[in-house]
């Protein structure tokens, strides 16, 4: 899990959110958005981030672009090159 401090806090259910905590993605999270057949890639990503941060999609939609970019970086950081290299070398040794 990683906490993202929002540069531009947002309002949600009467309270101001100054940070969001994102957990690592599970396969079930990806399956959920894969079922959204008519949604755009952006809508799928918003839903995925909302699930991972345990907030309503509307909260993600209200984020400033700078804060949304921070969420994207954190999400991609969960798949850092060290983990990817380890997974690739494990599968090639089989």
**How many helices does DSSP assign?**
5
The geometry reads as globular
What strand line-up does the widest sheet have? 1-2
Strand content: 15-25%
Overall SS class? alpha+beta
Q: How would you state the average pLDDT, rounded?
A: 89
Total discrete domains: 1
* Biggest pleated-sheet summary: 2 strands, antiparallel
Report how far the terminal alpha carbons are from each other: 31 Å
* SSE pattern, N- to C-terminal: EEHHHHH
* Strand elements, count: 2
Which residue ranges are poorly predicted, with pLDDT under 50 across at least 5 consecutive positions? Answer: none
Share of residues in helices: 40-55%
- Nearest-angstrom radius of gyration? 15 Å
Describe this entry's structure for a reader.
This protein is of the alpha+beta class and 94 residues long. The protein has one domain. Helices cover 54% and strands 20% of the residues. It contains 5 helices and 2 strands, in the order E-E-H-H-H-H-H. The chain has helices at residues 27-34, 41-53, 57-61, 65-77, 81-92; strands at 2-12, 15-22. A two-stranded antiparallel ribbon has the order 1-2. A hairpin with a 2-residue loop joins strand 1 (2-12) and strand 2. Helix 1 packs antiparallel against helix 2. The protein is globular and about 30 Å long. It starts with a strand and ends with a helix. The mean pLDDT is 89.
SSE layout:
Blueprint: E1 2-12, E2 15-22, H1 27-34, H2 41-53, H3 57-61, H4 65-77, H5 81-92
Antiparallel strand pairs: 1-2
Helix pairs in contact: 1-2
């Amino acid at each position: 899990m990683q906490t993202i401090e929002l540069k531009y806090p947002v309002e949600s259910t009467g309270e101001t959110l100054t940070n969001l905590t994102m957990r690592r993605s599970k396969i079930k999270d990806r399956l959920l958005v894969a079922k959204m057949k008519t949604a755009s890639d952006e809508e799928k990503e918003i839903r995925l981030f909302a699930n991972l941060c345990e907030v309503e999609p509307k909260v993600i939609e209200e984020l400033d672009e700078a804060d949304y970019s921070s969420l994207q970086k954190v999400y991609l950081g969960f798949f850092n090159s060290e983990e990817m290299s380890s997974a690739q070398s494990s599968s090639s040794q089989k």
